[in-house]
Amino acid sequence: MIPKILDSFALMAFFNDETGAQYIEDLILDAQEGKATLAICVVNLGEVFYSVSRSNSMQSAEKYIQQIREMPIEIVDVDWTLTRQAALYKTIGNISYADCFAAALAKLRNGEVITGDKEFKSLEKEIKIRWLK
Q1: In this structure, are residues 108 and 88 in contact, taking their beta carbons and an 8 Å threshold?
Q2: Sign of torsion over alpha carbons 109, 61, 121, 93
Q3: CB 98 within 8 A of CB 64
Q4: For residue 104, what is the domain's CATH number?
Q5: pTM of structure
Q6: Residue 94: pLDDT above 90?
Q7: How many domains are there within the chain?
Q8: Which of 104, 99, 94 has the alpha carbon at shortest distance from 127?
């Protein structure tokens, strides 16, 4: 089973019922049944928090994070190995540093990033990407 690495784009699409929301919902249901493995880097979780805080409120952001914490999604803390790989991706890709952590997690776990964020295009030869449609 290939681990599915969520970036903030994927979770925001899910919460905002945007393109790919149904796919993310299906992944979450599969993970509840043990048919999928989901993970997100704590840095990308921080992106969800600040995005919701900016567009809504800090209270809304706290609710989103609580909902995510209740989902079958592993929240991965950052260590030097993950940080180093993220930094390497930052040097070769035209991609935000936060997104580099999702890419690094996918690389280190031999997983697949789930995203619709076009910034990941620069890393298509480095990692597996499942584009939300």
Answers
A1: no
A2: negative
A3: no
A4: 3.40.50.1010
A5: 0.95
A6: no
A7: 1
A8: 104
